[in-house]
Amino acid sequence: MEVALDPTRVAILDALAEPGSATTVAAVVGLTRQKVNYHLKALEAHGLVEPVETRAWGGIRERFLRRSARHLVVSPEVLQRSAIDPDAVADRLSAAYLIAVNARTVSEVGAITMAAASGIRMPTLTVDTVIGFDSPEDRAAFAADLQAAVAALVSRYHDDQGRPHRLTISSYPQPKESS
To answer: Which of 48, 53, 26 is closest to 37 using CA atoms?
Structure first.
C-alpha cells in the first residue's frame, strides 16, 4: 500500500490506464524519464504494473507497461491485525456493524478473486439503488417488508447441500455530492 499510495506513483498509475513507457508517462506526469523509470520499477516489483511489449527504436529498447488493475481496494487486514468481526458488534443497526459487514465483504471477495484462476468469472450479485423515505416510519416499514421478502426468498431457494453464498443488504444515508 505504501508503494501504491505515494502521490507520484498514483499519478503514474493513472497515466497507465493505457500502456505507456517511461518516456510517454514522463510527458504526462511532468517528471523526467529517469524518475518515472525508478517509480515504474518499484510499482512492477509490487505487481502494480506489468510489461505489455518492448519496442526497438534504433539501438534503444523501450518497454511499455500498464497498470495491473483498474482499482485498488485495501483489505481491512492490511490496516489492522484482525478485521472487525460483525458478530462482535452488538448493535445491528449501527454504523460500526455496517462497516464490519462491508469490511468482511472486501476481505472475502478479495480472497476469492485472488484464488480464482485467471479468466474464471465469480458468480456475484450486486443491487445498488437509492430510495428516498418520507419519514422514519416509512423507512422502518420498508425495512420490515424487505426483511420479510428476503426471508421468503431464502426459504424458497436455500438448499443445505448447495454452495453457500453470503447475502448482505446495506442501507445508509447517501452523502451529499460535492459541488
So the answer is: 26
